[in-house]
Design a protein that fits this description.
8-stranded mixed sheet, 2 domains, single chain, Urease, subunit C, domain 1
């Protein structure tokens, strides 16, 4: 972004790191210059709406649905990225890690080269100033897939990778401890008959047993060498958490049980759950509810996962509807906490000197509405 005009905002309920105050805010050269209590003088009147930091999204699969809106259909990648970016920005997200899948099997709908294409087009879009939000990469590594290390190697020269996650979607474990859920998901998605599904499930289980551990260790070494944050996905047992600890993992992404979430929290990992889980009041896979982890005080971060608008909605559910935490603490789940988890200390809070990534939010009828979005003081939505 080239132009960074002065910005003055007044009469806003500003969500600070530890409180909410009626105040005013000045921006200079892309950074927050002044935060003060009281209505303030000159400036844009926010009419008592909330002013929160720009949301920080660590895990969204939504780019894929824009690039491939129907099975076998491919959209122009730059046009798809722009559409995805517009949806992200208007959801209040100013920093986003776009997920790209590493590791394919016979059920995969994308070729590995397509992920590299999307990454290259994301860089092109940023260089050409097409984007409203700041985009970086999250590589989702299916460790049971034979091709996962080869796919990751294609990204060896990319310096925009902020997070890698270790996933294993084999039947009978983690997200799919209930075999019926695994069968319902894959047979519904891929229209398999009994014989085809049985062969598919057996191959997935075989590959998991033979390749997952060595692939986990190899990817963890890459992350340590390149200073990339590493997450463990869908941990379900204490053994899963111990394995994650031994690999130096700092983020427990979507743990599926209270046992795993509690153990990860006790070992100092940040617990990341899905914002749709919060909004709906339950997991779509039948796993532990994010609200329950909030009640236990072991919820650190939220991700929109498959519904971008949920990232803003969920903190208001946790605070103003369920009274599980203060609004300041709830907003931290989607701003400063994820920012810190991937090494950013220049954004995520409304504090003098930090980046002026800001969102004006109006809250009516238990639903927040994004009214304005600024990235480094420049209005982008």
């Amino acid at each position: 972004m080239i132009s960074k005009p002065q910005l003055q905002l007044r009469n806003a309920r500003i969500v600070l790191p530890d409180s909410v105050v009626l105040g005013h805010l000045d921006v200079s050269d892309g950074n927050i210059d002044v935060v003060g209590a009281g209505l303030g003088g000159a400036g844009e009147d926010l009419q008592g709406d909330y002013l929160i930091p720009g949301l920080v999204e660590l895990h969204t699969d939504h780019l894929e649905s824009h690039y491939s809106p129907r099975p076998g259909v491919r959209w122009d990648p730059l046009a798809a990225i722009q559409a995805h970016d517009a949806q992200i920005a208007t959801a209040g997200i100013t920093t986003v890690l776009d997920c790209l899948r590493m590791g394919a099997d016979e059920s995969a709908s994308f070729e590995s080269g397509e992920m590299l294409l999307l990454a290259s087009c994301l860089k092109q879009a940023a260089d050409q100033e097409r984007l409203r939000a700041e985009h970086m990469l999250h590589l989702r590594c299916e460790v049971s897939a034979l091709s996962v290390l080869e796919d990751c190697e294609q990204f060896a020269e990319h310096d925009n990778i902020m997070l890698m996650s270790l996933m294993d979607h084999a039947p009978g474990q983690r997200q799919f401890t209930d075999m019926a859920v695994f069968e319902h998901y894959h047979r519904g998605k891929d229209a398999m008959d009994d014989e085809t599904f049985a062969a598919f499930a057996n191959r997935r289980l075989h590959n998991s047993q033979h390749y997952s551990d060595q692939h986990r260790a190899a990817i963890a070494q890459v992350c340590a060498a390149r200073n990339i944050a590493l997450a463990s996905h869908d941990d379900a047992t204490l053994a899963h958490v111990i394995d994650a600890e031994n690999l130096g993992i700092g983020i427990s992404e979507f743990p599926t049980t209270i046992e795993a979430a509690t153990a990860a929290h006790e070992k100092g990992m940040s617990i990341l759950m899905g914002a749709p889980n919060v909004v709906r009041g339950r997991s779509h896979s039948g796993n532990v509810g994010a609200r329950e982890l909030a009640r236990l005080g072991i919820l650190d971060m939220l991700s929109s996962d498959y519904v971008p608008a949920s990232l803003l909605h969920a903190p208001f559910v946790l605070s103003l509807q369920e009274n599980l935490m203060s609004l300041a603490d709830a907003i931290a789940l989607v701003t400063c906490n994820p920012a810190r988890a991937i090494g950013f200390d220049d954004r995520g809070s409304i504090v003098e000197g930090l980046r002026a990534d800001l969102v004006r939010v109006r809250y009516q009828d238990n639903i927040p509405t994004v009214k304005c979005v600024w990235r480094e003081g420049v209005r982008v939505a």
